[in-house]
Amino acid sequence: MKRAILALTIASLGAGVGITGATPADAAPAAYCASGNICVYNGFNFTGSTTPSWKCGVIDNIGSRWGSDQVRSFINNQTGHVVATFYNWNGSNWIPIGYSQAYDSRPYAPASFYNVPDGVDGIKPC
Ligand SMILES: [Ca+2]
User: Fold this and answer.
1) Total structural domains in the chain?
2) Of 2, 8, 63, 85, which is the most exposed, with the fewest CB atoms less than 10 Å away?
3) Which CATH number belongs to the domain containing residue 113 in this structure?
4) Rg for the chain, CA atoms, rounded
5) Can you tell me the distance from the alpha carbon of 57 to that of 80, in angstroms, rounded to the nearest whole number?
6) pLDDT tens, 38-76?
């Protein structure tokens, strides 16, 4: 039991160091999203870690590489006023839960996108 508590404490300390000890290389430029992409962030105001999606007609499973239910802000920097669709994976199907028409920049994503199991797991950029 003592060992388990110690391991938990070390893990917690490690997480704290990761948050407070970010190097310049870890810090993404604020609100940068390359043209043609929709970029989601796990922090509000385009902070935290980010991942881009860009392939039209394909649901990009961001949950598999970046995480699920944590889209707190996003920038849709695509062209031509295309509409991106945000999806939740309900265990057997992709369910659309939100849309964004380019250009669109949301420092605060809808509350239904994060911290809930039905939050965003995938994005079809266009
Ligand atoms: Ca989800």
Assistant:
1) 1
2) 2
3) 2.60.20.10
4) 16
5) 15
6) 999 999 999 999 999 999 999 999 999 999 999 999 999
Rounded distance from Cα 107 to ligand 1 centre (Å):
20
Instruction: Tell how far the Cα of 113 is from the centroid of ligand 1, in angstroms.
Output: 8
In this structure, is residue 9 part of a structural domain?
no
- With respect to residue 117, please indicate whether it lies within any of the assigned structural domains: yes
DSSP 3-state percent helix, strand, coil across the chain (nearest 5): 25, 30, 45
Q: Look at residue 27 and tell me if it is in a domain.
A: no
CB-based contacts of 62-66 (< 8 A; 24+ apart in sequence): 62/120, 62/121, 62/122, 62/123, 63/89, 63/121, 63/122, 66/40, 66/42
Kindly give the distance from the C-alpha atom of residue 63 to the centroid of ligand 1, in angstroms, as a whole number: 8
41 falls within a domain: yes
Distance CA 68, CA 8 (A): 23
The one-letter code for the residue type at 16 is G
Output the pTM of the full model.
0.76
Tell me how far the alpha carbon of residue 20 lies from the centroid of ligand 1, in angstroms: 28
